[in-house]
Amino acid sequence: MLIEKLRTEVLEANLEIVRRGLVLFTFGNASGYAREEGLVAIKPSGVPFEKLTPADMVVTDLSGKIVEGKLKPSSDLDTHLEIYRHFKGVHGVVHTHSGYATAFAQAQCEIPCFGTTHADYFYGSVPVTAPLTDEEVNGDYEMNTGKAILRRFEGIDPLTRPGVLVASHGPFAWGASPTKAAMNAVLLEEIARIASITLGINANTKAIGRALHDQHFLRKHGPQASYGQG
User: Fold this and answer.
1) From CA 66, how far away is CA 40, in angstroms rounded?
2) pTM of the full predicted structure?
3) 104-123 confidence digits (pLDDT tens)
4) Selected catalytic residue, list 33, 76, 100, 120
5) Which residues of the chain fall short of a pLDDT of 50?
């Protein structure tokens, strides 16, 4: 039953990023992690989203060994696994090539917090990784992508900045569940879109002050959060 539930939630996360316009063809994937069981479910590689069913989701352990499923897992599996192995509290990961976020990744530019829409969900800028070396690209590329993300998040709580721009590649987002990861992927793309427009209007726009940033992030997150109905 647990695997069935995980597969269903992961399928829904994959379909959500399509519905929200973050994915063209098969350019994206979502996964989910059942930490107590040590199992990960992820979209199969290269299968059109409209053909997916819960049974198509490939289940692996944290080493990448297939536990259930007849299809090949996403080629990004090792990046997802590296995040799950090291980011406590993360139980869902989403990777897309959504337009605005990917543009920032290709420019190798982080996204500063220009306003409260950003501040509601990211406690600081959206980070960008350092480029991979040729040796990293020609070696275990997907795992090395995950390691680049881990290096960028040294000293940063990944739950306070639930996404990253992989240099010259695209965005990865995560959350406490596959559903939350999909939501954060959508929010990351919207933050990137608004930032792009902002910089087009005024290339010298500065990040907002700490007081306003704190006010918006902390009212939605953390032990003193007051937003919503509890």
Assistant:
1) 9
2) 0.96
3) 999 999 999 999 999 999 99
4) 120
5) none
Is 120 in the active site? yes
151's tokens: 């290096």
Can you give the pLDDT at residue 223? 78
Task: Give the closest residue to 22 by CA, choosing from 110, 134, 117, 97.
Answer: 97
What is the predicted pLDDT for the residue at 210? 97
What does residue 28 show for φ and ψ, rounded to 5 degrees?
170, 165
- Considering the candidates 61, 140, 214, 227, report the single residue annotated as catalytic: 227
Give me the half-sphere count of Cα atoms (radius 13 Å) on the Cβ side of residue 200: 7
Domains by residue range for the chain, with CATH: 2-218 (3.40.225.10)
